Each structure stands twice: as C-alpha cells, then as structure tokens.
Amino acid sequence: MTTPEKDEVRNPSDEVNQGAGETIPSSTSANEGAATDENESVATPEAEEVEASIIEEAEAILEGVLDESELVAQAKAEAADWQDKYMRLHAEWDTYRRRMNEQREAEKVRATEKLVSDIIPVLDDFERTVEYAVNNGETGLLGGVQAVYNKLVDVLKRGGVVVVDPAGQAFDALEAQAVAMVPDDSVPDETVAQVYQKGYKMGVKVLRPAMVTVTTGGPKREAVEE
Question: d(Cα 138, Cα 39) in Å, to the nearest integer?
Fold first, then answer.
C-alpha cells in the first residue's frame, strides 16, 4: 500500500483562501472607486454654468473699471483745458484792465490840458487888468475884474463845473453846509438866508459845499412831490 507524496497533500483552507483572494475585492479598491465616481459627478452642467457666470461677472467688473478710468482721464483732460482757458482769460483781463487804467489816466491828462488851455486867456486878462490899474489908477478896475471873473466862470462851466449858489432856496445838506441859524418867520423854515462861500460840483459830485446861513422859526416847508 502506497502513501501519497508529502508535497501533494493540500490543505482545503488554502484553496478557500486563494479563491477568496481572487474574487472578493479589497475595501481600499472599493473606496477608490467611490471617490472616482464622486469626482466625476461634480463636473455637471450646473457647475459649468456657475463658473461661466462668475467669469462673465468678473469681465463686466473689469470693463466697468476700465470705463471709469477712461472717464477719470477725460475729466482730467477737461479740467486741464478749462484751467488753461481760465489762465488765458485772466491774463486778457489783466491786460484789458491795465489798458483801461492807462486810457483813463490819459483822458484825465487831456481834460486837464484842455482846462488849463482855456484858463490861460483868463490869466492874460488878469495881467492886462492889473497893468491897466497900475498905469491908469483904479478907475475902471472894478469893471475889468468883473469881466475877467465872468470869463473864468464861463470857462469852468464849459468844463462841466456847476456853481452852487443856493441863496433863497431850501437848504440842501448834500450841497451846502450851514454855519449859522438866523430867526426869520417871513420865509419857510430852513431857507438859505445868505451864502458866505459858493460851492462847486461836477455832475453829481460836490467838489466843495457852499457855506450858508439857514433861517429858523418860519412855517414848515411843504414836501416836494417827486
């Protein structure tokens, strides 16, 4: 009776283990497969749509920033242009103002020259009057002086000077200065009684107010309707 070879004897448990190793997958392989399926499921159309929306929004924001930069650059250019216009206008105004001042000064000089030219003949009359009085005495001196005075007043009137002589008129504080009050009930109150010194004005400007006395004690003057 023969006995089997020692290496040919097999343990049934070994065969079971080998079969199990070939057919049953390990837990690690199962987990890797599940992870792969989960990653593949993320790449859905909804995710792609969200990604595209985010990209589009970012591009819109970038375009807005670029547009604002262009607006800022345009505003700076306009500000620089207006500043240049202002500087040129300011320089032109300074030039115009200087020319006007020079023109007014020249007009004043011409007006003064004309006035002096008109007064020179009056000075000649004064000299002739004095010379006549020296050679012929005082006879006729008063008439000569009065004639020279009238001629001088005419020259001043032609130059725009107005003589303020308000005797017998209502007192006007803008053109006359009261130096005394005199009682007089025969005329309305605040009437110019006497003119001590005549006044002069040009246009509406009073060069010198007249020095006068004013009455008091008379009836109230009626208001003049404008």
Answer: 139
* Residues making up the chain, counted from first to last: 226
**CA atoms of 198 and 165, how far apart (whole Å):** 5
Show me where the domains of the chain are located.
161-219
> What are residue 181's DSSP bridge partners?
214
Please tell me the distance from the alpha carbon of residue 172 to that of residue 11, in angstroms, as a whole number: 151
DSSP 24-82: SPPHHHHHHHHHHHHHHHHS-HHHHHHHHHHHHHHHHHHHHHHHHHHHHHHHHHHHHHH
DSSP 78-99: HHHHHHHHHHHHHHHHHHHHHH
**Phi and psi at residue 200, in whole multiples of 5°?**
-140, 145
Quote the CA–CA distance of 130 and 125 in Å, as a whole number.
9
Helix, strand counts (H, E) of the chain: 4, 6
The answer to whether the CB of 123 falls within 8 A of the CB of 151 is no
8 Å CB contact between 219 and 187? no
Q: What is the pLDDT of residue 132?
A: 83
Tokens representing 137 are 């005495």
Tell me the per-residue pLDDT of 102-135, one tens digit each, with 9 for 90 and over. 999 888 888 888 888 888 998 898 888 888 888 8
- In this model, does residue 191 exceed pLDDT 70? yes
Decide: 33 and 25 in contact? Cβ < 8 Å: no
CATH of segment(s) 161-219: 2.30.22.10
